[in-house]
UniProtKB/TrEMBL annotation:
Gene3D superfamilies per the UniProt record, alphabetical: 3.30.70.100
Alphabetical UniProt keywords: Signal
Name of the featured protein: L-rhamnose mutarotase
UniProt-listed InterPro entries: Carb_Metab_Mutarotase (IPR052996), Dimeric_a/b-barrel (IPR011008), Rham/fucose_mutarotase (IPR008000)
Signal sequence region: 1-20
Organism: Flavivirga rizhaonensis
High-level lineage: Bacteria, Pseudomonadati, Bacteroidota, Flavobacteriia, Flavobacteriales
A molecular function GO annotation: racemase and epimerase activity, acting on carbohydrates and derivatives
Pfam families: rhaM
Length: 272
């Protein structure tokens, strides 16, 4: 009789152990994530995609001086494509495309390619030996005024509209050294900007600023209030708290002459 009770007790313990394992397995099972959930954007948000190409062929610039380019640009800015701008300095060309916030680079390109004028424009570019950049060749953004989040070039930079503005696009070359490049990126990362420098920009009327990289080339977009006068503001800017110190600090990463002012280092790119 005792032997039967012991066997029954052992069977009961085995059964309880099995149940416990099933419960634990159920608890440890990963919860499924609803990948169909939609992100809600506000009306004043948009995505920005940037690209860069270079060409020694002078005929490329001629393409952008034609009425065909003007018509292409006008045709592109519709629906989900909010803005399409191109800037140039000598052999360098910088493209800035703003779209619906729900777009990624692939979807943005699909929208561009639906515009007949854009297809015609690409053919004319190809005739000069230039291939329009692919959607997945966007630039890395290393800095934004008051940056809180980072996005990949294919995601596009999620931005907020700032209303009326005056835009400046500048460029400079960085030292061709991987370690210095990495450090330059780091000091421009989220939370790394000196608070005095950020305050200085805001105090003189800078509404937004970004820095993008193409290899060792840095491209800066600065949007200011519409009445901004750089010739008037520039000298005052240089004298603001820690501004000279900051320029000296970053100069070692830049291919510039020591002691150069902001405007001496950063060179203009003109809009086409």
């Amino acid at each position: 009789m005792m032997k039967k009770h012991i066997i029954s007790l052992l069977l009961l313990l085995i059964a309880l152990s099995s149940c416990k394992k099933q419960v634990n397995n159920q608890e440890n099972k990963p919860q499924e994530i609803d990948d169909k959930s939609e992100v809600t954007y506000s009306d004043n948000q948009f995505r920005r995609f940037t690209y860069f190409f270079q060409s020694q062929n002078s005929q490329v610039l001629d393409v952008f001086k034609t009425d065909g380019w003007k018509k292409c640009k006008e045709a592109l800015v519709h629906g989900a494509i909010y803005d399409f701008n191109l800037y140039q300095k000598e052999t360098d060309f910088f493209i800035v495309i703003d779209t619906d916030p729900s777009y990624n680079s692939k979807k943005m390109y699909e929208a561009l390619n639906q515009v007949q004028e854009f297809s015609t424009f690409k053919i004319k570019l190809e005739q000069t030996g230039v291939t329009f950049p692919k959607h997945d060749s966007g630039l890395e953004r290393i800095y934004k005024l008051d940056q809180k989040l980072t996005y990949t070039s294919q995601e596009g930079q999620l931005k907020t509209k700032i209303g009326e503005k005056k835009r400046f696009v500048w460029t400079l070359l960085l030292q061709k050294d991987p370690e210095m490049m990495a450090e330059y990126k780091r000091i421009h990362g989220i939370g790394q900007a000196w608070p005095e420098i950020t305050a200085n920009m805001k105090s003189i009327g800078v509404k937004d600023m970004e820095i993008y990289l193409f290899n060792e080339q840095a491209i800066l977009i600065m949007d200011t209030h519409s009445e901004f006068d750089l010739k008037e503001v520039g000298p005052k800017w240089q004298k603001l708290p820690r501004e000279t110190e900051w320029q000296e600090y970053v100069a070692k990463y830049q291919r510039t002459t020591p002691g150069s002012s902001i405007r001496e280092k950063w060179l203009d790119m003109v809009e086409l």
